[in-house]
């Protein structure tokens, strides 16, 4: 049994759908529910501590995004209406970050590369390298901070920054270089490729993909058909609406938290 | 027989290198050889290894003259990826070479690139998993493996692609003694049964000298090849049995325990009695560190279980045990970096302050280097202590004063480890903890490190050394503990703990019996 039981394509569908939902609404009810859903999915599928760290990084980034977007208001006329508007815009951005963080934590970027069609192999590889930088850097920061503490250098304040940044960046560069070397030495891009044990498309993966597409389709219908309010009025501020069908659609995005969980 | 690997007049200088890293190298390695590259740290071994599949100069740049051919193919005319079907390379830092996440996928990666048929691929992955005893790890993420496991996976991943030539840079440096022996046995089987050509660089000659049939000696960029006895004898280095043979004037010089036993038996001297191991019974000094009922874990995995341990003044404690036994975690707990989940740790009576009471040099020593010169690196530690002191004495103590002005990045892995060790030692902490301090060190550097650790302990302090290097433990430890599954399973004098073990016995014990640890002890008793 594969440690990561769900086909990566199901995750791509899930993340795209959830991202689409977040993109078309600024209703805090749906958005906050998406945060909860993302956390639930992440908690069910995270595999090791490194993923946990990288998820936390995205979560922090999301909170910062909300705060910064809201703070932008203070450069203009401050009113309850435009503060709320900015906050909701920020919340939407933060939600997309959280969804991406979940996707990053539950999938293996290099596993995705192997799925890419041959012609997209190189761009997919570049993307995977970029995706793997965040978790690598986070792990590196922790290790370097520990290493410096063990020789009496505590890292706080700008003056101590080189002690943290130099080894992290230098090691990161070195690792990237070794990785590139290793890939070349192991025949990457040498010619025709074959696939080792392609991952099966399981019932769980199918369920995840279908519910995700359903959720996205429901929001698309609401957006086009106008039968539900996706952008609550902020001037004057009204209590946001929660359409039962849309609530159910967002809720169904939690399906991966229930099926195909990896063995621990 | 034809040449698997051939160097003709190869001289190579790194970009920004002042001198050539390898100079005028002529070398031919026959197909089916088991070859060892040996020489001081920084003498060009890694460069030569990386030139074998064209990574030098195709990836590194620099100035290259001469010609390297692999199985008849010129490495300048073929990109490294075009040589992947004949030559595979396992770098010094195996963790950094992993491309995929799962162990099993990592093994298949090279074959996927070569377009091997899925059916063959599956079978070869299974065979390779068995060959290196990795079946139990097949679903693990490579990032969660211990150092030794990573090394075995990297070797397996290189092998699985089915190359004719395998090049390995210090393949046993992260392995426990048993793991190292298993890897060497697996390599020998590939050479003997499948006609593969293996070229490896290694400093721990006691682990490899008996297995190889060709040695390539390095001396500041110049090479000379011949039989292992000839080359190792000429270099003036060698495993403990060779050093003993040199002291006692044995001819030929023994390279293996077996040869040393034969030489000792052939001599007219009386056999040595078991050495009295209870020689250090004059009571322990005051306690420096105490570990009481400590358990420690990462995420959900318990790594150290209910452990009790005292470290006394004047002691050099060697912590041994197989890969993943909890040695590094114990050191981190002692240093106050890792909070135990249960129990408590005291250093000089209070909670350990990292960098003050305990200085710990981690296994990935590169992670603490951030200055532009070796001298500044050590001074950074002194400055953190609030001292404007001179880095000179610390560099001199570890024999790296000559590197003071060099940039750490330009040094060899072994030299960088010494720099990191000096930077940690400069904390002047009463408890010095070193995690695998001899990785990549040549015998001369190791000798200086041993002197340094001893001096630290003799000055009324203590040292804890986690190591797989039994010869280091034999030479430096005043006490040895062995961990298994995070529990303490042996604790005592090195003579009895190491003498009592099949796996951890040093060479002198294997030749002369329990209690004999170093060639110097034996030579003294015999002359």
What features would you describe in this structure?
The complex is a heterodimer of chains A (264) and B (527). Chain A is 67% helix and 0% strand. Chain A is mostly helical and 264 residues long. Chain A has two domains: 8-111 and 199-258, no CATH class; 112-185, no CATH class. In chain A, helix 1 runs parallel beside helix 8. Chain B has 527 residues and is α/β, with parallel strands linked by helices. In chain B, strand 11 (287-298) and strand 12 form a beta hairpin. In chain B, helix 3 packs across helix 4 (118-131), helix 3 runs parallel beside helix 5 (147-160) and helix 12 (374-384) packs parallel to helix 14. The chains are: A mainly alpha (264), B alpha/beta (527).
Condensed summary:
Chain A has 264 residues and is mainly α. Chain A is built from nine helices and no strands. Chain B is globular.
Describe the protein's topology:
The complex is a heterodimer of chains A (264) and B (527).
Chain A: H1 8-24, H2 28-45, H3 49-71, H4 80-106, H5 109-115, H6 121-149, H7 161-185, H8 203-225, H9 244-252
Helix pairs in contact in A: 1-4, 1-8, 2-4, 2-9, 3-4, 3-6, 5-6, 6-7, 8-9
Chain B: E1 3-13, E2 22-30, E3 34-38, H1 45-51, H2 55-58, E4 63-70, E5 73-74, E6 87-90, H3 103-114, H4 118-131, H5 147-160, E7 165-169, H6 177-194, E8 197-201, H7 205-208, E9 214-219, E10 222-226, H8 228-235, H9 240-248, H10 257-266, E11 287-298, E12 301-312, E13 316-320, H11 327-334, E14 342-347, E15 358-361, H12 374-384, H13 392-397, H14 413-425, E16 431-435, H15 443-458, E17 462-466, H16 470-476, E18 479-484, E19 487-492, H17 494-499, H18 507-512, H19 519-526
Parallel strand pairs in B: 3-8, 3-9, 6-7, 7-8, 13-17, 13-18, 15-16, 16-17
Antiparallel strand pairs in B: 1-2, 1-4, 4-5, 9-10, 11-12, 11-14, 18-19
List descriptors.
heterodimer; A: 264 residues; mainly alpha; 0% strand; B: 527 residues; alpha/beta; six-stranded mixed beta sheet; 19 strands
Main beta sheet of chain B: 6 strands, mixed
Count of distinct structural domains of chain A? 2
Rounded radius of gyration of chain B (Å): 23 Å
**Gap between N and C termini of chain B:** 47 Å
Q: What Rg of chain A, in angstroms, do the CA atoms define?
A: 21 Å
Shape of chain A: globular
Biggest interface, chains and residue tallies: A-B, 56 and 76 residues
Low-confidence stretches of chain B: 278-282
Secondary-structure element pattern of chain A, one letter each = HHHHHHHHH
Number of helices of chain B: 19
Supply the helix-strand structural class of chain B.
Answer: alpha/beta
Question: How many helical stretches of chain A?
Answer: 9
| Strand segment count of chain B | 19
Cα-to-Cα separation, first versus last residue of chain A: 12 Å
């Amino acid at each position: 049994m594969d440690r990561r039981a769900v086909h990566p394509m199901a995750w791509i569908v899930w993340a795209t759908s959830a991202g689409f939902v977040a993109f078309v609404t600024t209703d805090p009810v749906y958005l906050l529910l998406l945060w909860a859903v993302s956390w639930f999915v992440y908690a069910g599928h995270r595999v090791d501590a490194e993923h946990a760290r990288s998820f936390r990084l995205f979560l922090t980034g999301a909170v910062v995004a909300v705060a910064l977007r809201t703070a932008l208001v203070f450069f203009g006329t401050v009113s309850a209406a435009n503060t709320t508007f900015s906050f909701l815009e920020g919340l939407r951005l933060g939600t997309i970050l959280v969804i991406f963080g979940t996707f990053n934590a539950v999938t293996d970027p290099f596993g995705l590369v192997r799925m890419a069609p041959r012609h997209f192999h190189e761009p997919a590889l570049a993307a995977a390298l970029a995706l793997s930088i965040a978790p690598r850097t986070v792990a590196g920061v922790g290790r370097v901070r520990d290493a410096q503490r063990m020789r009496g250098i505590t890292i706080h304040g700008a003056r101590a920054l080189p002690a943290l940044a130099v080894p992290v960046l230098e090691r990161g560069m070195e690792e990237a270089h070794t990785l590139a070397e290793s890939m070349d030495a192991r025949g990457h891009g040498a010619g025709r490729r074959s696939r080792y044990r392609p991952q099966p498309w399981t019932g769980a993966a199918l369920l995840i993909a279908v519910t995700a597409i359903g959720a996205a389709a429901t929001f698309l219908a609401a957006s086009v058909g106008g039968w539900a309010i996706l952008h609550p009025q902020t001037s004057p501020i009204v209590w946001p609406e929660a359409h039962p069908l849309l609530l159910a659609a967002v809720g169904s995005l939690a399906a991966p938290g229930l099926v195909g969980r990896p063995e621990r | 027989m034809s040449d698997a690997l051939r160097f003709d007049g190869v001289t190579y200088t790194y970009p920004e290198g002042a001198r050539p890293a390898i100079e005028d190298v002529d070398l031919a390695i026959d197909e089916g050889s088991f070859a060892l590259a040996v020489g001081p740290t920084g003498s060009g071994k890694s460069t030569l290894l990386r030139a074998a599949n064209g990574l030098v100069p195709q990836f590194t740049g620099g100035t290259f003259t001469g010609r390297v051919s692999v199985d008849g193919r010129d490495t300048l005319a073929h990109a490294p990826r075009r040589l992947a079907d004949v030559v595979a390379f396992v770098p010094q830092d195996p963790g950094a070479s992993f491309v995929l996440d799962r162990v099993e996928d990592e093994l298949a990666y090279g074959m996927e690139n070569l377009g091997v048929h899925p059916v063959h691929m599956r079978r070869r992955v299974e065979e390779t998993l068995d060959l290196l005893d990795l079946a139990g790890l097949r679903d693990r993420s490579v990032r969660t493996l211990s150092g030794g496991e990573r090394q075995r996976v990297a070797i397996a991943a290189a092998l699985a692609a089915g190359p004719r030539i395998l090049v390995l840079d210090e393949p046993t440096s992260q392995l426990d003694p048993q793991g190292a022996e298993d890897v060497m046995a697996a390599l020998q089987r590939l050479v003997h049964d499948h006609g593969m050509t293996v070229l490896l660089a290694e400093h721990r000659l006691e682990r490899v000298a008996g297995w190889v049939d060709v040695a390539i000696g390095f001396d500041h960029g110049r090479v000379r090849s011949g039989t292992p006895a000839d080359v190792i004898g000429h270099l003036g280095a060698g495993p403990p049995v060779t050093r003993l043979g040199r002291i006692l004037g044995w001819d030929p010089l023994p390279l293996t325990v077996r040869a040393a036993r034969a030489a000792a038996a052939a001599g007219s001297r009386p056999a040595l009695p078991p050495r009295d191991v209870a020689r250090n019974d004059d009571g322990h000094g005051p306690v420096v560190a105490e570990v009481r009922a400590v358990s420690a874990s990462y995420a959900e995995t318990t790594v150290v279980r209910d452990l009790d341990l005292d470290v006394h003044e004047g002691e050099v404690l060697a912590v041994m045990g197989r890969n993943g036994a909890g040695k590094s975690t114990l050191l981190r707990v002692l240093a106050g970096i890792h909070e135990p989940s249960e129990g408590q740790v005291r250093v000089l009576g209070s909670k350990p302050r990292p960098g003050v009471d305990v200085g710990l040099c981690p296994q990935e020593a590169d992670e603490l280097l951030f200055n532009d010169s070796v001298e500044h690196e050590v001074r950074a530690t002194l400055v953190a202590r609030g001292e404007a002191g001179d880095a000179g004495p610390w560099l001199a103590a570890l024999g790296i004063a000559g590197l003071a002005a060099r940039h750490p990045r330009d040094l060899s892995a072994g030299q960088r480890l010494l720099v990191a060790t000096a930077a940690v030692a400069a904390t002047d902490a009463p408890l010095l903890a070193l995690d695998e301090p001899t990785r990549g060190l040549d015998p001369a550097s190791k000798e200086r490190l041993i002197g340094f650790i001893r001096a630290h302990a003799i000055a009324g302090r203590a040292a804890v050394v986690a190591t797989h290097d039994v010869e280091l433990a034999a030479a430096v430890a005043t006490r040895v503990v062995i961990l298994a599954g995070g529990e303490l399973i042996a604790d005592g004098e090195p003579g009895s703990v190491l003498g009592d073990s099949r796996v951890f016995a040093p060479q002198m014990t294997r030749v002369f019996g329990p209690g004999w640890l170093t060639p110097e002890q034996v030579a003294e008793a015999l002359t």
